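Fold it.
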Amino acid sequence: MGIDPGLANTGFGVVQAAGSKTSAVDGGVIEAPTGQALERRLELIHASVGELLDWHEPEALALEDLYFGKNVRSAMAVGQARGVVMLAAAQRGIPCFDYTPQAVKMSVCGSGAAAKEQVKEMVAALLGLPTVPPSEHAADALAVAICHASQSPEMIRISRSSPKRSSEAVR
């Protein structure tokens, strides 16, 4: 499962990798209304991610790493969203992996400087989707999931911190 964390919009994407084929299972956006108190928004993100983790039972959770641009306030909010997402995974014994935005773009598009629209188009192409994902957040989360799925299984196994979970068929 891939996550594009955000305080207002947290994208999620679930992919299934079988050999060299990766397919989309689920994807979307968790919206936390801006009019609510911060703690309520974080609670909503935590609970929603928890439900998705319980439903899909992923072997791992891959997150887009925090990008510190010029807006420190925005970066702090994203960090808080990342924290509650990671907490939901930790409560279920699911290991988390971080990927920089550049690494995700490189994995999906072949260039770490790819534009958002190019990422959306490549996600659709790689997953065999009939159209590009309508949400940039969901597309980014699917891209993070694709990036993680493309990593060497040996490297993932070495860096895992919890016992192997069963890989049942996705519902």
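The radius of gyration is 15 Å.
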